[in-house]
Amino acid sequence: MANKTVMIIEDDVLHMKLFKDILENLGFSTLRARDGKAALEIARITHPDLIIMDMRLPFTSSFDIVKQLKNDERLKDIPVVAVTSLDDNMKKEEYLRHGFDDFLSKPIAVPNSIKTVADMFGPAPFTVH
C-alpha cells in the first residue's frame, strides 16, 4: 500500500502503537492524533487516504469529528473507521448512519483490523491470514 496514508486518532498509547505497527508493517504511512481538534487540523493539511478513529476521545465527540469531516468538501470522501469497545451497545448500522464507513471492535484483533483496512481500499494487494 505504498503511497497510502492512514491517520490514527487514538488517545490510548498502546492502541495507537498497535495500529501504527500493523499499518506500517503493511506498507502504509501513518499520521497520529490524540484528540479530535488536532485530528481535524492534520486532516485538513495532509488529506489522508483513511482515518481510523477511537470513539472515546478527549475534548470532542467522535460523532462531531466525523460530521465535520463529512461536511467538508475537501475531506468528505476520506473513509472513516470507528473503533469502539465491545461494551458499546450501538450496532454497525448506527455508526454508518452517523457517517462512519465501517467499524472495528476492541479488543483489537489484528486479522480483523487488516481486513477492515483492506476493504477500505478495494482489492487488497496483500494477503489477510
Detailed description of the structure:
- The chain has 129 residues and is of the alpha/beta class.
- It has helices at residues 13-25, 36-46, 62-71, 92-97, 110-120; strands at 5-9, 29-33, 50-54, 80-85, 102-106.
- It has a five-stranded parallel β-sheet, with helices on both faces.
- Helix 4 links the parallel strand 4 and strand 5 (102-106).
- Helix 2 (36-46) packs parallel to helix 3.
- The longest helix has 13 residues, at 13-25.
- It is globular.
- The model has no long low-confidence stretch (mean pLDDT 87).
List keywords for this structure.
129 residues, alpha/beta, five-stranded parallel β-sheet, 5 helices, 5 strands, 40% helix
How do the helices and strands line up, and which of them pair or pack?
Layout: E1 5-9, H1 13-25, E2 29-33, H2 36-46, E3 50-54, H3 62-71, E4 80-85, H4 92-97, E5 102-106, H5 110-120
Parallel strand pairs: 1-2, 1-3, 3-4, 4-5
Helix pairs in contact: 2-3
